[in-house]
């Protein structure tokens, strides 16, 4: 089957190829009647835009690279859906490359984007390994705009979009104190180079200080891999029986704590209050004990990332740091121990 060209549409309608080109682009000097006739003829003949030729003419590929960890969760899916929606509105396509969160970023992770000459990149920096900025610097040297998601890093030329993890953790501690808790533990990954971990931990410390509670290092559980997490719970609660509440790094950690509580035959929240972070599990309100947590707005993060990237592509100046507000969601996993009664 032969490729249908704009010249074939022009011949079909008895007009110039320039007029066809303008009509397909939606040029202002082409009437709506003519544009509809051209579109109808293009559909009849089976015309498809030559994206390679269009890219050469425009000097842009209209492709954005998206480097994302190979993990699932509502937070990531909401961001992806939002990015795709807003990029489509801008006439862009998304090229997705997943990466292994447990190994260092290397050239192979971004080579695909270079080969396709993407107009920009949206990336989740790896969180389970130290920050490797050399790869991103190499991209920036090629004048490819970058938006980094969920990390607050100092990389001149790049734009960061991240949740207000510090404020979110402070609100968790405030809610716990309001409900009578002062012996408050926290469970975190052992990734202190990860700014999300840093900011949530700092929010925990700040929340304690604001409520005149002395931080206790014995109340902090750090883990390297999720499968080993439950084993650490045994010694943690045996050595700290006075703890009444635990703030978890994310909702998946909170679910591990739920499983441990079931195995040990103690009840949430009667025996232990639990708060998650992320609102990142399916239907948390439908759990036997609905999980209190912090919602990160993945949709807003995706929208903001696209908006800033489009401005960078068009040569506009944008803020380097862009913070997306979080929202505390109160459910039934927090017990009010001030006095008998319902959770506030």
What's the β-strand tally? 12
Point out poorly predicted stretches: none
Round the mean pLDDT to the nearest integer and report it.
87
Largest sheet entry: 6 strands, parallel
Gyration radius, rounded: 26 Å
Residues in helices, as a percent range: 40-55%
H/E topology pattern: HHHHEHEHEHEEHEHEHEHEEHEE
In order across it, which strands form the biggest sheet?
A: 2-1-3-4-5-11
Helical region count? 12
Beta-strand fraction estimate = 15-25%
Shape: elongated
- Structural class call reads alpha/beta
Measured between the Cα atoms of the first and last residue, the distance is 69 Å
Folded structure, characterized:
The chain has 344 residues and is an alpha/beta fold. The protein has helices spanning 6-13, 17-25, 32-45, 51-58, 74-89, 107-115, 134-141, 165-178, 195-210, 229-239, 251-263, 298-313, and strands spanning 63-69, 93-99, 120-123, 146-149, 159-163, 184-189, 220-223, 245-248, 273-275, 293-296, 321-324, 326-329. It is elongated. The termini are far apart.
């Amino acid at each position: 089957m032969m490729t249908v060209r704009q010249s074939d549409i022009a011949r079909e309608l008895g007009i110039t190829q320039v007029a066809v080109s303008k009509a397909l682009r939606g040029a202002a000097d082409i009437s709506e009647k003519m544009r509809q006739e051209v579109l109808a003829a293009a559909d009849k003949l089976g015309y498809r835009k030559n994206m390679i030729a269009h890219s050469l003419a425009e000097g842009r590929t209209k492709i954005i690279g998206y480097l994302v960890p190979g993990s699932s969760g509502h937070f990531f899916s909401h961001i992806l859906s939002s990015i795709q929606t807003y990029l489509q509105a801008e006439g862009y396509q998304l090229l997705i490359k997943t990466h292994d969160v447990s190994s260092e970023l290397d050239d192979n992770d971004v080579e695909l984007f270079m080969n396709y000459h993407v107009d920009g990149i949206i990336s989740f920096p790896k969180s389970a390994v130290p920050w490797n900025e050399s790869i991103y610097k190499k991209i920036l040297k090629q004048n490819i705009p970058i938006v980094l998601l969920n990390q607050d890093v100092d990389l001149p030329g790049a734009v960061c979009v991240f949740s207000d993890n510090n404020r979110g953790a402070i609100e968790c501690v405030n809610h716990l104190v309001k409900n009578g808790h002062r012996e408050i533990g926290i469970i975190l990954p052992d990734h202190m180079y990860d700014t999300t971990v840093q900011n949530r931990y700092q929010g925990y410390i700040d929340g304690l200080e604001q409520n005149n509670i002395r931080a206790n290092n014995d109340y902090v559980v750090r883990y390297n891999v999720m499968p080993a997490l439950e084993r650490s719970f045994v010694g943690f609660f045996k050595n700290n029986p006075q703890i009444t509440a635990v703030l978890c790094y994310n909702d998946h950690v909170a679910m591990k704590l739920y499983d441990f509580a079931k195995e040990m035959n103690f009840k949430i929240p009667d025996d232990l209050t639990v708060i998650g972070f992320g609102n990142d599990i399916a239907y948390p309100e439908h759990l036997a004990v609905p999980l209190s947590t912090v919602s990160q707005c993945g949709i807003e993060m995706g929208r903001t990332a696209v908006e800033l990237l489009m401005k960078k592509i068009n040569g506009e100046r944008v803020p380097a740091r862009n913070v997306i507000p979080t929202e505390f969601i109160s459910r039934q996993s927090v017990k009010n121990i001030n006095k008998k009664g319902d959770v506030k």
